[in-house]
Amino acid sequence: MSDRVVNAGLQPSVTPVRPPASVVTEQRGVRWLLIAIAIVFLALFLLLPLLTVIVEAFSKGLGAYAAALTEPDAVAALRLTLTVAAIAVPFNLVFGVVAAWAIAKFEFRGKNLLITLIDLPFSVSPVVSGLIYVLVFGTQGLLGPWLIDHNIQIIFAVPGIVLATIFVTFPFVARQLIPLMQEQGTLEEEAALTLGASGWHAFWTVTLPNIRWGLFYSVLLCNARAMGEFGAVSVVSGHIRGLTNTIPLHVEILYNEYNFVASFAVASLLAGLALVTLVIKSVLEWRYSADIAAGARRH
Amino acid sequence: MHAATDRIGASTAIQVADVSKTFDTAAVLHQLSLDVQAGELLALLGPSGSGKTTLLRIIAGLDHPDSGRIIFGGEDATGLPVQQRAVGFVFQHYALFKHLTVADNIAYGLNARERKRRPPKAEIKNRVGNLLDLVKLSGFASRYPSQLSGGQRQRVALARALAVEPRVLLLDEPFGALDAQVRKDLRRWLREIHDRTGQTTIFVTHDQDEALELSDRVAVLDKGRLQQVGTPDEVQEQPVSPTVLKFLGDAVEVSAVARDGGVEVNGRATPVQAPANSGRDLKLYVRPWQIRLTRPDDAHFVAIVQSSYRTQGRQRIEVEGPDRKPFVVESPDSVRFSVGEPVGLEIIGGYPFDAALR
Ligand SMILES: Nc1ncnc2c1ncn2[C@@H]1O[C@H](COP(=O)(O)OP(=O)(O)OP(=O)(O)O)[C@@H](O)[C@H]1O
Ligand SMILES: [Mg+2]
Fold this sequence. Notes:
The complex is a heterodimer. Chain A is mainly α. Chain A has helices spanning 2-10, 28-57, 61-70, 72-105, 111-123, 126-137, 144-149, 158-169, 171-184, 187-194, 199-228, 231-237, 247-256, 260-292. Helix content of chain A is 76%, strand content 0%. In chain A, helix 3 (61-70) packs across helix 14. The two termini of chain A are 48 Å apart. In chain B, 25% of the residues lie in helices and 35% in strands. Chain B has helices at residues 52-60, 82-85, 102-111, 121-134, 150-163, 180-197, 208-214, 232-237, 242-247, and strands spanning 12-23, 26-37, 41-45, 67-72, 75-76, 87-90, 168-172, 201-205, 217-222, 225-230, 252-259, 262-265, 268-273, 281-286, 291-294, 301-311, 314-320, 326-332, 342-347, 351-354.
């Protein structure tokens, strides 16, 4: 210290070099405290529940776990969940790409309204989303009489579950792609057209490759939500065992019957899905962050 | 002057006939007509916002005119979709396909063809190789656009456009985003390629030097109107309006009068001829090299020295002229001038226009 003072005195033009001071002025202790709080919080509210699920699921041994998963109602629930996701995800994939395309690349009236509408499912409670379908398609609903006349059942049947799931997972793909496509503009497509490519060819060879990682990412999240959705599906399902129960609903029924092992065993499937989703998501974000986030151009 | 000049007058490759275009409420092109000769290199020159890009996009079919027609080799192409126009478009910001390699970028147009018209794989490969040679990027076939410099990307964009053997090549400020040295190299190189391929080419620029150096003919555009079309010599020697003249280089504006077929400035005759059927009051536009320092007694006007410096054996003197705008005159290095000193200036050339003309 005194050394530096002497030096500074000898060479007044040279200012003593200081270690780069952090812009953030919190002291070490405060920093560690904040980090510790965050970690404890995460452990308590995220990790502990996850562990509980696993521990509970295997508490009666592997046999009980396997039995819970292979029981016919559980298999039916699993099959239904996969079916619903297999319909809802591709539907929202196509819709999302079309909507994002229209919004990002064309100018038209009512564009802002469309953007707002796409957001709607995120802003209403899932229960309300479910109720909307009951009010429209239920026996007392708007189209109820007509549907009964034509012997079509939507509410308390698979179509209702699919519709509710589609509604709830509507925004995932579109919201992810709109900023991405807006940022990319139409220049490359125009180049493709001048080179003789048809619009269709340009879409497959230029537009889609440019959004592929963002698309994959959003489909992943959309799928996780579609398989895990509870609220909206619960309203329209009717909870008919083996017929209209999805995995989340099945978990709840088992739990209400105090069948904890089976309940947690089935729940562990959802937890597993969440973990897999999380891992793939992290890998995507790490590897292709520039392609996923709009605004970060690579050239 | 240029090899391709011989080809001018051969036949009209593209005719732009009375094209108008309005975006929302702003009129961008006003009944614009322009003929492009087969095999020529035409520069579209104009200030920013004058409608150059819009015109180019309309020719390509990326935008549509509100009225007027686009005629390709005698056939009306106004309604023809982009894909069928067979134009090669090189965008200012390259617009390369960033997920494809250089070779795949160049091959894109060939691969996009329907199976019947698509050349066999080996031939595509061969053609890509030739084009890579042409744009001097042979070693770069498997690179991605993000691994190239700006100048290299622009050359890939050009090769990609040439690959489909377009009827016309449209270049929108192809060198706009590059630094001065690369621009110079690419300019010369583009001229070479043009001379070799004889490709009808329109290129947009707002750089006069680029247009005058590179092109067979220059079309000067201002505020959506075509001001003049002619060879670089024509537009420089006989500019049709002060706008064209000012756009092609620095000029000093001096009030003058027509008398007996000549032009007088401040009551003193100049070697300049008065324009036919003009009024008495003229504006004379004088390029820096058309002004000579002289004794105040013989001068057309007197200016005040602002600064002077010497370079390569000449003295460059910045003076403030009659319109209070500074300009530079050159003189041999014998006499020295000091700041604030009045100097006499003699006009030895210039371009007279009726004072009412803009
Ligand atoms: N899609 C569009 N919508 C509205 N106005 C437009 C559109 N495209 C161009 N314009 C307007 O048309 C005018 C001419 O534009 P254009 O791009 O043709 O100019 P330019 O001569 O190419 O200019 P620069 O040298 O800056 O590229 C500008 O005033 C511009 O704002
Ligand atoms: Mg432009």
